[in-house]
Amino acid sequence: GENVEQHPSTLSVQEGDSAVIKCTYSDSASNYFPWYKQELGKGPQLIIDIRSNVGEKKDQRIAVTLNKTAKHFSLHITETQPEDSAVYFCAASSPRDSSYKLIFGSGTRLLVRP
Amino acid sequence: GAVVSQHPSWVICKSGTSVKIECRSLDFQATTMFWYRQFPKQSLMLMATSNEGSKATYEQGVEKDKFLINHASLTLSTLTVTSAHPEDSSFYICSAHSGRIMNTEAFFGQGTRLTVV
Predict the structure, then answer these.
(1) How many CB atoms lie within 10 A of CB A97?
(2) pLDDT, tens digit, for every residue of A72-95?
(3) How far is CA A51 from CA A1, A104, B17, in A?
(4) CA-to-CA distance for A58 and A61, rounded, in angstroms?
(5) Rg of chain A taking only CA atoms, in angstroms
(6) Chain B contact residues (CB < 8 Å to A)
(7) What backbone torsions phi and psi does residue A84 show, to the nearest 5 degrees?
(8) With an 8 Å Cβ cutoff, are B49 and A101 in contact?
């Protein structure tokens, strides 16, 4: 089955700097890659996603890139703000599984220092 | 985006008792819902896939007789932790897909923190 690896596990940046989180996946058939932000004691919130027919997607300060050949995708946050501090999870799903279940990475704890 | 409501947000129960957690899709019909468990500082681990009108599909290592899942309608799935023990204490989260073709977006509930004493 699918396996998703995520790094780094923790990331500390100065406010205003950029943050990059990387994930790799194992199933070449996977075609959907969402990123979630989880704040303490809350459920994950979708912040951006990308499908396999697109190489890059951007939404204001957040962007995601996908390299299908290398089977990796990355989250880029520019001009970071203290409220960006949270745990971020990448995930992947494959059409091999008709239920579209998501396989999650291990998470990255992002700390934005004021 | 779509709204998924989970209830209760937290619960404390005595060891040996059962606890039911509800997951509702408020503004869409969910043919498929998922239940996850998350231990502190860890990732979300899929427990089971809940399909409306049929039996749930459990992931390897998850006891189906201990974690009862019912998905009786297109807007409600329930997870019952039976004979709870302290090691069942965790953060339980549900998610739902709208079921539209080619739509793989998942919307998550706010989670339920279960503490078994």
Answers:
(1) 16
(2) 999 999 999 999 999 999 999 887
(3) 19, 16, 44
(4) 8
(5) 14
(6) 1, 4, 6, 32, 34, 41-44, 46, 49, 51, 57, 93, 95, 97, 104-111, 113
(7) -80, -15
(8) yes
The answer to whether residues A80 and A19 touch, using CB atoms and an 8 Å cutoff, is yes
Q: A110 in contact with B at a CB cutoff of 8 Å?
A: no
- Which residue in B10, B44, B93, B115 has the most chain A C-beta atoms within 10 A of its own C-beta, making it the best mutation to test that interface? B44
Residue type, B29: Q
Residue listed under structure tokens 């239920």: A99
CA distance B41 to A53: 33
Query: Which positions in chain A touch B95 (Cβ < 8 Å)?
Result: 102
CA distance A111 to A19: 10
pLDDT by residue (tens digit) across A20-77?
A: 999 999 999 999 999 999 999 999 999 999 998 889 999 999 999 999 999 999 999 9
Judge residue B10's burial from the number of C-beta atoms within 10 Å of its C-beta, 0-12 exposed, 13-18 middle, 19 or more buried. Answer: exposed
Tell me the residue ranges of DSSP E strands in chain A.
4-7, 10-14, 19-25, 32-38, 45-51, 56-59, 62-67, 72-77, 86-92, 103-104, 108-113
